[in-house]
Amino acid sequence: MAEAKTGAPAPLEDGPADGRAADAEAASPDTASAAVSTADASAPGRDDTAWLENLEQRVHQAVERLRELAADNQRLVRRVAELEAAAAREEAVAATPDGAEAWQRERREIRRRVESLTDTLESLLPR
After folding, report:
1. Are 98 and 92 in contact (CB under 8 A)?
2. What's the pTM?
3. More confident residue, 21 or 105
4. How does 68-96 read in b/e, with b if 16+ C-beta sit within 10 Å?
């Protein structure tokens, strides 16, 4: 790739063989004029490095997003481990005779309370 005196790569004069660059420029006049003004700039300056500044900004944004996602991932991994440990403890308790008996008592209590709520709600309905 040819480079300008500033060390930045020179813009390509020909687009890809499939014509995507021509279509993109035709669809977006801002992009086309920006490409022309950058290509026509003969003096070194901001236009020569604007693409690099844009790239740097996008890379920094991507890195920050990756850091956020990594932190979220670590938090979720810890939460999954906590939930798996709690489930294993509950399974171990339920596997014991006392645990199975306690589970049956809890189930009967829940059933009794739900039936009581149902009866209360049914009593409010007109007959």
Report:
1. no
2. 0.41
3. 105
4. eeeeeeeeeeeeeeeeeeeeeeeeeeeee
